[in-house]
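Board notes (copied after class):
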Amino acid sequence: MIRRSLLAAASGLALLSPVRAQVLHPVDRSYTVGAGLAGEITKKQTKPAEDISGIACAPAGAGPRTCMVVDDEAAGAQFVTLDGTTLNPGAVIDIAGRKPPAAALGSPPATGNCTLGQGAYREMDGEAVAYEAPDFYVTGSHGCSRRGREFKLSTALLARLRPDAAGTGARVETTYRLGDALRTADTVGPYFLKDLEPREGGKPLSGLNVEGLAVVGDTLYAGLRAPVLDGRAFLVSVPVAALFAPGDGPLGTKPTTIPLALGSDAGIRDLTALPDGRLLVLSGPTRNGLAVPYTLFLAELPSGKVTPLGTLAPLDGDEARGKPEGIVRLGPGRVLVVFDSVLDGGPREYAVAIP
């Protein structure tokens, strides 16, 4: 009996052992994406989506789920309906436009310390999507461009989108105040608008950028890919009402910084809120080229306590370059993951035991 008890205890501990002991493989690769998922849209063409960086869905109901995806080369986001194992692209919603939106709330940030200064107003560099009824939220990266090391005002927007009844359009509100929250946040504020990748002769590497987003009740959580300090990545939380308060005044509240112990060089790549208010966190390398696995964690709020759930096995074959960039909960113990550098995001379903 004692031996059986010890074995049972060991089995329980195995579930909580380091995440590298559990590698997650797709349980369903049969997901298909209908025609029309858009990437960058120019005057001459609409490029196919190959840089999907975020997804969020309204809760499941009697019919297909209404979702939204973002491609980091696009100027906005796109509605998608999830019907069984098929994602059907819908309307594209322009957020950034060709020039700064006149109605954007708050005030634009200064150029900051990006090595090459001010860049062209172009793509939003959308990195994440969140849903809290009845709205979707989409955020730009709020950082220097990774390759160009420029500050682009188009990446400094947070948008709130309320779908219309037909599901073919949305009312769009934009704000610059998430940048205020990042700049004034404890611990991470000094890293705002600094270079993200090493460069010979460039400024010291110490940048901040957003790649995850979740809204729980009346609070928005921005998940930072960088910086990571002493093995801790960070959430910056701020009330939604303060972000979208009328007028051009700055953020009227102090944000909260929540550290998550995800490991060395492991930043937040996406977030999704669970029905009980906890967060599912997708982590990955803070910088390009680092050998850091993509890992799922469960995070409790507001404590920031994390529980590792497993690492995602790398894709193979023609999709080996794929990087997990977006997660959405399908149901108990089931998540859908979409990938950057894979045509149409290469959606795959995974089984994940969530305590």
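Comment from the instructor: The mean pLDDT is 88. The longest strand covers residues 219-229.
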